[in-house]
Write a structure and sequence with these properties.
Elements lengths: L4 E3 H8 L3 H9 L6 E3 L2 E5 H14 L1
Antiparallel strand pairs: 1-3, 2-3
Length: 58
């Protein structure tokens, strides 16, 4: 993961899930995000953290 921040579409693509699934992760506080203006962005570290947490639960 070379990018510092990702858009919702980029994060969904990296996780190979739909936007809807990604927004469910955000709503359930499993994925940390922040907003810049109207754009919701995801730190690459937050995405890695989410993946690690999901893998531990699985």
């Amino acid at each position: 993961m070379n990018d510092l921040v990702l858009t919702v579409d980029e994060a969904a693509e990296r996780l190979r899930v739909s936007r809807w699934t990604l927004y469910n992760l955000i709503r359930s506080n499993q994925l940390r995000t922040f907003k810049v203006g109207r754009r919701r962005l995801i730190e690459a570290d937050a995405l890695a953290e989410c993946i690690k947490t999901l893998a531990e639960v699985a």
